[in-house]
Amino acid sequence: MLTVTQFYAYLRKFREAYDGAMEPLSVELSMAQTAVELLLFLANNPETNTARDICFYLHLKPGIVSFHVENLVRDGFLERRPVPEDRRKWRLVPTEKAEPVVQRGRALQADFCDRMNRGLSEQELNLCSHCFTVFEQNLSDMAKQQSNQAKKESHNGTR
Q1: Which of 146 and 13 is assigned the larger pLDDT?
Q2: Distance between CA 96 and CA 17 in Å, rounded?
Q3: pLDDT, tens digit, for every residue of 86-128?
């Protein structure tokens, strides 16, 4: 049975190792690592391409996202495109200038995954993927329950 402490330790080790694997690209480009991460996220997940999506999935504060988006747009790595159904939103799309950065970043990500998965069979990796899918669903269910409980308590408190 994994404990909460073990999960935190694994997450921390993952983050430290991933940051270390991606650092050479940031240094090579003289670009903040968060900006590189943001650019790769948008290139790898074209369906989640708003600042709000970045905040949600990368757990970044809006001010930090705004700062890096502004710099990436200014430097020609991103462009903003209006969202027709919501004039307050902008899609963030990597430009042609970003393509070499994205390709280099994807290569580093693939190497990181290969190194992390070393020593595991395809069957073990499939089982691990299944476990994380179940974890994700359980965590989503827990968050919904907590939100519903908080709403219920708030509603009861306002009567």
Answers
A1: 13
A2: 29
A3: 888 899 999 999 999 999 999 999 999 999 999 999 999 999 9
Q: Alpha-carbon distance 148 to 159, whole Å?
A: 17
For 77, list phi and psi in degrees, rounded to 5: -90, -20
**Strand segments (E) across the chain:** 78-83, 86-94
- Asked whether 106 and 21 are in contact (CB, 8 A), the reply is no
pLDDT higher than threshold 70 for residue 146: yes
Q: Which residues contact 61 (CB under 8 A, 6 or more apart)?
A: 55
Residue 75 scores a pLDDT above 70: yes
Tokens of 121: 């069979």
Buried b (16+ CB within 10 A) or exposed e, 45-64: eeeebbbebbbeeeebeeeb
Residue count (the chain): 159
| pLDDT surpassing 90 at residue 154 | no
**Alpha carbons 101 and 73: distance in angstroms, whole number:** 14
- List the one residue out of 50, 35, 44 whose CA is nearest residue 90: 50
